[in-house]
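agent> Task received from the user: take the single chain below, predict its 3D structure, and emit structure tokens. No templates, no multimer pairing.
agent> Plan: (1) validate residues, (2) run structure prediction, (3) serialize to tokens, (4) report one or two observations.
agent> Step 1 OK, no nonstandard residues flagged.
tool_call: predict_structure(input=
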Amino acid sequence: METTITTQEQRQAIQDLIQVELLKRGYTAKIISFKEVETQRGGPRIEFYSEYFQTTPVIFEKIRVESFSTSVKKKEETREDGSSYEVTRFWICVHVSYNHFNGGSNGCKIFDLSGNFYEGESRINSYTIR
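)
tool_result: status=success, residues=130
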């Protein structure tokens, strides 16, 4: 079930940022799926998957970059003058998964991305990559 915490433009901004960070690390696989979904507990999370890719020499059957653990939350913030505004905060663990030729699979974290959007904006206000 798709939720509406982020807009399509905000999801596209996050996807573009992840794609650039992947390229900086040498991953040229294109992100082919990126959406916000509701978890079993009812909270929103961001899911994305890259196309499958390969390395040279070929050491795994399939490799793909994907979200591993994510969070999306809206919060009400208060300015110094007492007025309030809404902030959408997101956190995504970017993960690489690989399938072995014998059928097993494994993976590891590449980086964490966290940031926020101010109310009504479609560009990322600030972000941190760890």
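agent> Step 4: summary for the user.
The longest helix spans residues 8-24.
agent> Done.
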